[in-house]
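Board work, copied verbatim: Large conductance mechanosensitive channel
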Amino acid sequence: MAAIFGQPNFDALVLHLNGAEITYGHFLTTLVSFLLLAFTIMLLVSAIRRATGREAAGAQGSRECDHCKSFIPVDASVCMFCTRDVEPVVPG
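↓ predict structure ↓
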């Protein structure tokens, strides 16, 4: 990752306030590094899910409850969230 973006280094950033020295640069460097790593992992996982066809697997077996708008299994006859009766969807 450092080869693509370069190693972020904000360690020299310091805020002088009423005679106090607040060094926020190290925190900023760590935060930027974490966000870049998290974004890279998210892209990698997304690409793997898309390649294996598992991206929409959860959406195929669920539907929205008419009453509380929560997602429930397609063949459910009672909503597990609001406990109201729902008509099961008959595949066809």
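The mean pLDDT is 83.
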